[in-house]
């Protein structure tokens, strides 16, 4: 056993596979992923990945779980650092979400495609946990009368749809020479203006 492969036989193979799989996902999509190819790139036997992932779908589900946990941590951290009222906190959430989406678009698409699999309730739970803080932000703003609405979930979905659209146009370079942060803050401002009590 050489030094390069030794760490993977001492507990790091799973982490190494996930890191490499995420990179491969962003570069070539789901179709470009294979356990055998990952094993080859890591310099381990082609059967070694099966110690951690029974098949490609198990690997994809592990990527989704890891991605949801990371997204949740980033959203929580963005909101934790935020100061000011509802709009400022929503901008902080938007920055964290759009930043994640811009860095990991293929992973985010996979996360949304897999989170509702009835055979994997853990994925749904991880998704709910990832978005718990922003949903609470909206619920609390409604309860305090800062914004109008009776259904926090509907408002949360509208916010998420807006952010996903923002992430898409920013990543695709469709904002010309505008600052991404200025576009983001301006869009959130327009959304919040529509939610203010009249």
Q: Could you please describe the fold and organization of this structure?
A:
With 198 residues, the protein is an all-alpha fold. It folds into 2 domains: 1-53, Orthogonal Bundle (Arc Repressor Mutant, subunit A), CATH 1.10.10; 65-195, Tetracycline Repressor, domain 2 (Orthogonal Bundle). Helices cover 69% and strands 0% of the residues. The chain contains 9 helices and no strands. Helix 7 packs across helix 8 (152-171). It is elongated. Mean pLDDT is 89; it is low at 1-8.
The radius of gyration computed from the alpha-carbon positions, rounded to a whole number of angstroms, is 20 Å
What about the largest sheet?
Answer: none
Structural class: mainly alpha
Strand content: under 5%
CATH architecture grouping of the largest domain = Orthogonal Bundle
Annotation keywords:
mainly alpha; Arc Repressor Mutant, subunit A; Tetracycline Repressor, domain 2; elongated; disordered N terminus
Layout of helices and strands, plus pairs?
Layout: H1 13-28, H2 35-42, H3 56-81, H4 86-103, H5 105-114, H6 121-130, H7 132-143, H8 152-171, H9 180-195
Helix pairs in contact: 1-2, 3-4, 3-5, 3-6, 4-7, 4-8, 4-9, 7-8, 8-9
Short characterization:
The chain has helices at 13-28, 35-42, 56-81, 86-103, 105-114, 121-130, 132-143, 152-171, 180-195. Helix 4 (86-103) packs across helix 8 (152-171).
């Amino acid at each position: 056993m050489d030094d390069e492969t030794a760490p993977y036989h001492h507990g790091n193979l799973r982490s190494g596979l996930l890191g490499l799989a995420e990179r491969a996902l962003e570069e070539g999509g789901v179709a470009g992923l294979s356990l055998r190819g990952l094993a080859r790139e890591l310099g381990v036997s082609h059967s070694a990945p099966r110690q951690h992932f029974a098949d490609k779908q198990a690997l994809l589900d592990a990527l989704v779980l890891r991605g949801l946990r990371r997204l949740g941590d980033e959203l929580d951290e963005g909101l934790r650092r935020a100061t000011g009222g509802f709009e400022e906190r929503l901008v902080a959430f938007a920055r964290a979400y759009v930043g994640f989406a811009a860095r990991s678009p293929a992973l985010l698409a996979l996360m949304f495609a897999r989170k509702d699999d009835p055979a994997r309730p853990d994925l749904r739970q991880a998704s709910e946990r990832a978005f718990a803080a922003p949903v609470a932000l909206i619920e609390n703003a409604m309860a305090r009368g800062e914004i109008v609405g009776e259904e926090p979930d509907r408002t949360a979905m509208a916010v998420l749809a807006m952010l996903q659209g923002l992430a898409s146009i920013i990543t695709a370079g469709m904002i010309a020479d505008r600052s991404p942060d200025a576009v983001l803050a301006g869009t959130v401002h327009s959304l919040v203006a529509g939610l203010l009590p009249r």
